Amino acid sequence: MPETPPQTQKQIDDLFSELKTLSDAQLGYPTNQCFDYSSLFRFLEFSINNVGDPFHDSLYRVNSHEIEREVIATFANLMRLSPDETWGYVTSGGTEGNMYGLYMAREMFPEAVVYFSQDTHYSVRKNLRVLNYRNIMIRSLDNGEIDYEDLRETIRINRHLPVVVMANIGTTMKGAVDDLDKIRDIFDELAISSSYIHADAALSGMILPFVDDPQPYGFDAGIDSIAISGHKMIGSPLPSGVVLTKSDYVGRVARSIEYVGAMDTTLSGSRNAITPLMLWYAFKQQGLEGFRNIVHESLATAEYAVGKFNEHGIPAWRNKNSITVVFRRPTDEVVRKWQMAPYENFAHIITVPNVTRDKIDAAIADCVANPRTTN
Ligand SMILES: *Cc1c(COP(=O)(O)O)cnc(C)c1O
């Protein structure tokens, strides 16, 4: 192969050092940067591709399907479904996983109405547009959970139609968890005969399995599918996620494709084969005990941040079992400097392991030194 031209090398070096600086001051996005995948670098030498269903043979055999199935089994156990009854795959991220859940729901209940709260991730509205799936937005409570009263009354009006609920297991802005028990109680109360719950557990899907008193979040709480991000709590340089559903459902979308000798059950065709390997490696390297420690440490840091903000006169709070710390919005410069995520009159930081107490102290000092002068 030709050598890298000097000008190109300079651009590479400049980008590298810029990213290094920027990564250090990123507090508002839930991407755990504490990872080390260096033992997997050599896999970049292959044209490795997980095209097709990871549970079926494929003619394209340079893949990591076997590893991918192990990743799905690990998540199945965490999400409280027997691996034998689970189907799923490693996606490109939370958006694709949510799209998959809604796709499955639509194949099962094309006549349904999808209900989702105001605090639902922006990807869901886009997914619903792409799928051309009938939907109604429900109000949120102040803490970010869906407004159960509004949900009940809105379903009541459409109770003759199947119900699909897009439940948030950790909202993007406030880390709120919709109460799956209450949602199912509403179905019972209104005698809904056909229903489907997809859970968007992008971040909290890797938190709740490891806490002592989790809100309901898994298949044991009546969900039908769930999406979890790989690059958030677990951490990875390549965005990824997993989607899980029940294996009896997947026949509804399966089509056999002769060209690749595979079952076309996934949304993407060619799929990343390195991300399953990274997720698998993270679980091997940390073990479930390692993730339990990471989660407990992150929750303790979140509690520390809430205390510090309040001590400095900046109102701050968080939801139960959440590492998303919500506080009064600082100035735009402070938001930019620390890459906080702003929304209306508040902002948040998310205490993944690289968001240390030192950085929190420094960011709070900036908030205090630069008070907002308007509203
Ligand atoms: C981040 C996030 C997503 C989308 O995940 P991507 O991996 O960016 O596609 C979906 N839902 C929630 C709640 C999220 O926080």
What does the secondary structure layout of this molecule look like, with pairings?
Elements: H1 6-24, H2 65-78, E1 86-91, H3 94-108, E2 113-117, H4 122-131, E3 135-138, H5 148-157, E4 163-168, H6 180-189, E5 195-200, E6 225-229, H7 231-235, E7 241-246, E8 256-257, E9 262-263, H8 274-311, E10 316-317, E11 324-328, H9 332-337, E12 341-343, E13 346-350, H10 357-369
Helix pairs in contact: 2-8, 3-4, 8-10
The chain binds pyridoxal-5'-phosphate.
Pyridoxal-5'-phosphate binds at residues 93-95, 121, 123, 170-172, 200, 202-203, 229, 239, 241.
Question: Could you please describe the fold and organization of this structure?
Answer:
With 375 residues, the chain is an alpha/beta fold. The protein has helices spanning 6-24, 65-78, 94-108, 122-131, 148-157, 180-189, 231-235, 274-311, 332-337, 357-369, and strands at residues 86-91, 113-117, 135-138, 163-168, 195-200, 225-229, 241-246, 256-257, 262-263, 316-317, 324-328, 341-343, 346-350. The strands form 3 sheets. The protein has a 7-stranded mixed β-sheet, with helices on both faces. Strands 10-11-13-12 form a 4-stranded antiparallel β-sheet, with helices on one face. Strands 8-9 form a two-stranded antiparallel ribbon. Helix 2 (65-78) packs parallel to helix 8 (274-311), helix 3 crosses helix 4 (122-131) and helix 8 packs across helix 10. The longest helix has 38 residues, at 274-311. It is globular. 44% of the residues are buried. The model has no long low-confidence stretch (mean pLDDT 95). It binds pyridoxal-5'-phosphate. Residues 93-95, 121, 123, 170-172, 200, 202-203, 229, 239, 241 line the site of pyridoxal-5'-phosphate.
